[in-house]
Design goal:
Layout lengths: L6 H5 L10 E6 L6 E7 L2 E7 L2 H5 L6 H11 L7 E5 L4 E5 L4 E2 L2 H4 L5 H12 L10 H14 L12 H11 L7 E3 L8 E4 L2 E4 L6 E3 L1 H11 L4 H12 L5 H29 L3 H5 L6 H5 L9 H17 L2 H10 L9
Antiparallel strand pairs: 1-2, 2-3, 3-5, 4-5, 6-8, 7-10, 8-9
Helix pairs in contact: 5-9, 6-10, 7-10, 8-9, 8-10, 9-10, 10-13, 10-14
């Protein structure tokens, strides 16, 4: 990756910090960018330095869009934005005084309503500066793999026609798009005294809310029961068999596409400085609490996500979900 400006240089770029007692430390967390805790007169902030090569590699939206969306999300469930340095690019954020959730946390049934509420707040907030479509992202990542001769997960292209059926089913009768995070792994949820907050808008964009829920289910490895609980908590009385089926199909689409995200990261950026210093999935708040960090294996994650997608595509229930969404069995040719 490109050289990151020194922290000392960046601290001098924030006028409100000038002449004050400042301490900083590198935070482990995230998969791509450089994150620091900055204590100014003992008040903590987060400095998030964005790496343009992440978006250049197709692994995130452009830095200007991420900054704009982070500012928009601050009006609902995101951290407050105190300063932006677009030319770096970097963002100075509120340090959220809460607990970073983990995989076990988001699988607890009693926690699911709080996750759904956080999503509803985000989705009701200001629209983002860009749109996002998981199948367009898949097309983009496939092209990046082709261009860079990156090996795909075993058998990936063999299922292309089935994935096309999945895409076509979900594009029928699309609902209104809303500002979505699109990458809600557990560690992007922070439990605070005022409710669950959401951080890290690297892949954000206006999208179908059913994808947001399906993506949470995929990242947290929900079974159908937990997925149903999440959909019910989010949609309430509006939940229908079609909406639930869309959420479950987007769960599959999430694993299908993010398998390529990890493939690209493994092939193009796995040796990056960000990974050397921040190779865990925990966010900066967790690192500040001294929680253990672990080396992240991008190649293994790509294989795992594709394995989960394959099992779902081969499950007899896949056809039933397609039929619920489309009103027919899309695997059967039209007469």
């Amino acid at each position: 990756m490109s050289a990151v400006p020194s922290v000392a240089d960046l601290l001098e770029r924030v006028p409100s910090w000038m002449g004050r007692a400042v301490e900083w430390q590198r935070l482990a967390g995230g998969l791509s960018h450089h994150v620091y805790r900055i204590d100014v007169d003992r008040v903590p902030y987060v400095l998030r330095v964005l790496e343009p090569r992440v978006s250049d590699a197709g692994l995130g939206i452009a830095p200007a869009l991420e900054i704009a969306n982070t500012e928009a999300a601050a009006a609902s469930v995101g951290a407050q934005v105190y300063a932006t340095l677009p030319d770096v690019p970097a963002i100075v954020l509120e340090f959220l005084p809460g607990r970073t959730l983990g995989a076990a946390d988001v699988r607890r049934p009693e926690v699911i309503p709080a996750l759904a509420l956080a999503c509803r707040k985000l989705h009701a907030g200001p629209r983002f500066a860009n749109d996002f479509d998981i199948f367009e992202k898949r097309r983009e990542l496939l092209e990046i793999c082709r261009r860079n001769d990156l090996p795909l997960p075993e058998g990936y292209l063999d299922r292309a026609s089935t994935v096309d059926v999945l895409r076509d089913a979900l594009r029928q009768r699309p609902g209104k798009t809303v500002p979505c995070h699109n990458d809600l792994l557990a560690e992007n949820f922070i439990a605070t005294s005022s409710g669950v907050r959401i951080i890290d808008y690297q892949l954000s964009g206006n999208n179908d809310p059913a994808f947001e829920l399906g993506d949470i289910a995929a990242e947290a490895d929900y079974d159908p029961d937990l997925t149903g609980r999440l959909a019910e908590a989010y949609f309430g009385a509006e939940l229908s068999p079609v909406l639930l089926a869309r959420v479950r199909l987007f769960h599959i689409a999430s694993n299908v596409t993010w398998a390529l995200w990890f493939t690209v990261h493994h092939g193009l950026l796995a040796a990056s400085p960000a990974d050397d210093d921040a190779a865990s999935r925990a966010d900066g708040n967790a690192a500040a609490r001294g929680e253990e960090t672990v080396v992240f294996d991008y190649g293994a994650e790509a294989a795992d996500k594709w394995g989960q997608a394959l099992r779902a595509l081969d499950d007899p229930g896949f056809g039933r979900l397609l039929g619920t969404v489309t009103g027919r069995n899309p695997l059967t040719p039209n007469p």
